[in-house]
Amino acid sequence: MNLKKTVLVIPVNDAEAVMILRLAQAMKLPTIISQQPHGASLDREPKIIQQIKDCGAERIIVVEMPGVKTEKKLSDLGLEIVIIDHHHYQGLDRACHPKNKKSLPSSLEQFLKFFKITDSYLEKLGFDPRLVRGIGIIDRGFVWALQNDGYSEAEIKKVIAYQKKIMRPFVDLKEEKKYEQTARDAWKKRKVWQEFFIMVDNTKKGLRPYLSIILAQKFNHRVPLILDERARGVIYVQESPRTKELFDKFGGFTFGEDRNWGYKNSSVLKKVTLAEVKKFLTE
Ligand SMILES: [Mn+2]
């Protein structure tokens, strides 16, 4: 495979993306890094077509950055587009295989498969295959997927620590400690409603990853949660069998094997409030 004619376009906004980027760099795969946060779109990436033309790529691999308009423009230019994704977006299903409709593995797992990356190749590149694959598994279905895939408790801890480690260059350590504390405080203020915990988060950056870890460590099983990130403008319902219905009703996006739903209020005119979500869940 001629990697020189391929370019990877990736927003580095979580551990999975960082892992893919590090693998790409080790493989010397040309890369365009997007600075967009979660919810990135190829259509909103500045000068992306020009950037791709400039690097002379014939094949573009786009990771979790849906942008149907730009994808079409690129394929009209005769370029091959490889979409790596596993989320449901409003009006766009990228969580299921377009043909067999099976739910797709995480983006990292797809990346490893696309390039036929074996454990021995990962080792040759200087990575621990169990940890690399662990990052892909945790992104697909959180710690439950790691348990399912035969990771021991000790290994799960290692994968979580590795997630933190690879995020280090992108995270301010002091800030992270502060967020972990804020998450513990938010947990203390949790409310119980039906089968859900409800938590309100007033931080700009969002506490979801920290809270998910707290919950997993406290309960060691799936716990339904409604998380209202008021300052960030995102509302989530996690670990509920009704997330698909929420998606069908309100739009937004799903993640974690469709058992989690989120809606970004900041980017749209139609807002979805906690009250509306609760009302829908009682119906
Ligand atoms: Mn992912």
TL;DR of this structure?
The chain is of the alpha/beta class and 283 residues long. 43% of the residues lie in helices and 18% in strands.
Structure description:
The longest helix has 20 residues, at 129-148. The chain has 283 residues and is an alpha/beta fold. The chain has helices at 15-26, 48-54, 68-76, 107-114, 119-124, 129-148, 153-167, 173-188, 208-219, 243-250, 274-282, and strands at 6-11, 31-34, 59-63, 80-84, 88-89, 92-93, 191-193, 196-201, 225-229, 234-238, 253-255, 260-264. The protein is globular, with a radius of gyration of 19 Å. Helices cover 43% and strands 18% of the residues. It has an 8-stranded mixed sheet with strand order 6-5-11-12-10-9-8-7, with helices on both faces. A 4-stranded parallel sheet has the order 2-1-3-4, sandwiched between helices. Helix 1 (15-26) packs across helix 7 (153-167), helix 6 packs across helix 7 and helix 8 (173-188) crosses helix 9 (208-219). Manganese (II) ion binds next to loops.
